[in-house]
TrEMBL record:
The keyword Transmembrane helix applies. The chain crosses the membrane at residues 36-59. It comes from the Bacteria. Keywords: Membrane, Plasmid, Transmembrane, Transmembrane helix. This is NADH:quinone oxidoreductase/Mrp antiporter membrane subunit domain-containing protein.
Length: 69
């Protein structure tokens, strides 16, 4: 049974890889340019950095006030 699953999954994934590698058509990519797009990217990046760096401080704060039991 495992061999049959392997063959089916190889067929499925290799078909996708072959289509990506050997296809002549290229999809059109639409790039958003403008003040709203730039502002959204900056705010999202800052929230990601602050959230990643501030997670430890938030955990220490909740431990100090006894929020997590």
């Amino acid at each position: 049974m495992a061999a049959a699953n392997t063959v089916v999954s190889l067929f499925y994934y290799l078909r996708i890889v072959a289509r990506m590698m050997f296809s002549d058509t290229r999809p059109t990519v639409h790039v958003l340019v403008g003040q709203w797009a730039r502002t959204t990217m900056i705010v999202s990046g800052l929230l990601l950095i602050v959230g990643g760096l501030g997670a430890e401080m938030l955990m220490e704060f909740t431990d100090s006030i006894g929020f997590v039991r």
